[in-house]
Every structure is written in C-alpha cells, then in structure tokens.
Amino acid sequence: MEKTLLRFFFCTFCLIGVALSAKAQKFVYDLDFLFYFDNREYHSPYSDAQTLLGARLSPEIGVSIDDNTQGVHRLMAGAQYCQPLNKNFLDAKLMPTLYYQYKKKGYNLHFGAVPYRKLMHTLPEFYLSDSINYAHPNLYGALVQITGKRGFLELYCDWYGLQSRTTREAFQLMVDGEFRAKIFYAGGYISLTHLANKAAPEPRLGVCEKFSVNPLVGINLSPITPLDSFTVQAGYILGYNRERETATQHISHGVHADIYLQWRFLALRNNFFYGNNFMPFFKELGAEFHRGNPFFQSKIYNRTDLIVYLFRKDFVECRFAWNIHYTPNDKIGHQQQIILQFNLGKALPQK
After folding, report:
1. How far is CA 323 from CA 40, 151, 271, 282, 348, in A?
2. N or C: which end of the chain has fewer CB within 10 A?
3. Is the confidence at residue 305, as pLDDT, over 90?
4. Across the chain, where does the E strand assignment appear?
C-alpha cells in the first residue's frame, strides 16, 4: 500500500509540474473532511442494527487554465481516505480522485473519478443510502451539468463495479433536474442501474436491470414565512426491475412526500413513502444492485429527522440528528447521527 501511495503522489506532482510549465494560470486546491457517528438501533427485517464511526479526508490539488472563450479548464488529482475510527490502518480505504473539469457560463463538465459532493442535489434515500454515501464518495465516469436562471439539468454515469472474478460489473445512469417559478418548482429523477456478470470462469449469474422515474413538484414557502427554510414536495416513483436469466420481472410504484423546516439552529425533516416493494431483489443482491435505503422494501415507510445544528458556517457544519424510522408491524427504529463536514477551499481564498 505504501508503494502504491508513493507512485500515486509521484505521478500527481509530475502531472502538475508539466501543466505549470505549459500554460497554467492558477494553482488550485481543495480539502474536504467528513466525520460521522451513526448509531442505528433497529428491530426490523429490512436493516440491521449497527454503529458506524469514521472519518474521511479528501485532499485535491491541480491546475486551472483560462481559455480565450471565457472557459475554464481544470485538472485535479487527489484521494479519498476513509478510516473507520474503531479499526486500524489496514482497514482503511484509499480511493483515487482524478478528474478533468470544463466550466463555462451555464455548463459544467466533469470526467474521471468525481466527488459526489459536486452534484447539484443530494440524492434521495431511495437512490443512495447513508451507508453507501460514507464509503462510496466518488462517482466514476462523467458528470454533465447545465444551469440557468430558472433551474438546472444534470446527467451522470457512475461505473461503480469493475468486472473481475470477485466483482460484478455495475453502473448507474442518472438524470435529474429542477425548474423554478417563483415559490413553485418541479423536477425529478430518471435512473437506470445495470448489474452484469463476474469475469469467467466464475459462475454466470443473471444480468439485472432497474429503470425508474420520479417526477415531483414542490413549493418553497421560505420567503413568505418567518422560518429560515420551509419546503414541501411530493412525487410519484415508478420502478421496473428485471432479471434476465429467469425472466423475473417486478414493477414497483408508490408516492412520497417530503417536508423540511428550519428555524435558526433547529430543523425538522419528514419523509413519507407509500407503495409496494421498491427493492424486490434486495435479499438476493443487496446493496450491490439496490443502493438505496433498504427500508423502502416496506409498503409504508416514514422517517422523521429532528436536527440540531451545533454550528454552521460556509466552510464548516456540525449537526446532531435523531432519526425515527417507522414501518408497519415493527418496533420503531431509532438512529442518532453526528455529522461534521469541513471544506478548506471555502475557508481560504484560492491562490
């Protein structure tokens, strides 16, 4: 592991040196730190009780070059170092961050291993759970974003499974967007997940695919209330799951409603889902195929988050959340989270 690290940083500095000697305008950097304590007290068939404790350090360095069309080219290299704090160094994960970015008025393109924090919106829980978000901080492929005065549209491809004798080939395509008109907005998500086979001579397994659409509408009442933030949105979600080998098919659909309130350092978020099993292959394939919160296997699911922001600045945020999970015929599950996130790039001016 030490030799791999040395080779990685040697190549990184060589790459930056070549760029600086050519036409570089600026040397740029970023450093993101995440600490998470996540205690889950569940009595549910959908998710296990456990405690997650860890920290993630994400340094990036690179060069930024301005062209004569007001476009900005950026080449960044770094790493995502994920360390479980109740384990030793050998249990840590080190993942490279390496991407090219082109930005021009209204357009923002990324290619390579791109941090998920570059997304315009945090993905809903039925697409990406907390657990995967901690350990899978990068998307591997491309991210395209188009922004305007009334909203945005973004598309990404995350090739998160490289085919080998131990890993099945897997990727996810996602399109999401939002259109705003005064206090109203509309948007949604379109997603395709593909899970293929391992490399030969491993046993050939059925190829699985999942396609889903999630149109939604919402209203932002923050400007007309004394609250700092007040949004209400509702949507419909339709999913089609298929396993090719046995021609097994499942159609999932349901409705969801989300409310978020914030006043100073206090906040409340409530997510409600009613429908049929949105993750029909979870017992067989787990998070390798269904990457969302496993509670969405239930016909009815409600999650209420009571949040206290211990401190909140542009560059650092620390919050405590007590999350209450409800599904029929199960005891109410409790989850306590302490999340701290720090970004050096927002704290200091770029040079």
Report:
1. 9, 30, 11, 23, 34
2. C
3. yes
4. 26-41, 50-66, 72-84, 93-104, 107-115, 138-148, 151-161, 170-181, 184-195, 208-220, 229-243, 248-263, 266-275, 300-312, 316-326, 333-343
In 10 A of CB 55, how many CB atoms? Answer: 17
- Backbone torsions φ then ψ of 318, nearest 5 degrees: -130, 125
Strands (E), 196-332: 208-220, 229-243, 248-263, 266-275, 300-312, 316-326
Q: What is the CATH number of the domain that holds 32?
A: 2.40.160.40
Alpha-carbon span 61 to 169, nearest angstrom: 30
**Identity of residue 328:** P
DSSP assigned state of 106:
T
Q: Per the structure, how many domains does the chain have?
A: 1
* Residue among 150, 137, 151, 146 at smallest CA distance from 109: 146
The DSSP code for 163 is -
Whole-structure pTM value: 0.87
Q: Which helix (H) or strand (E) holds 347?
A: helix 344-347
Terminal Cα distance for the chain, rounded: 32
- Per-residue pLDDT for 12 more than 70? no
**Residue 163: domain span:** 2-347
pLDDT bucket at 242, cuts 50 / 70 / 90:
very high
Closest CA to 32 of 118, 128, 129, 141: 118
CA distance 120 to 187: 13
Quick one: tokens of 290? 């269904």
- The DSSP annotation for 197-220 comes to PPSTTSPP---EEEEEEEEEEEEE
The length of the chain, given as a count of residues: 351
Q: Mean pLDDT over residues 55-64, rounded? A: 94
For residue 201, say if its preceding peptide bond is cis, omega within 30 degrees of 0.
yes
pLDDT digits (tens, 9 = 90+) for 230-240: 999 999 999 99
Residue 28, Cβ density class (10 Å: 0-12 exposed, 13-18 middle, ≥19 buried): middle
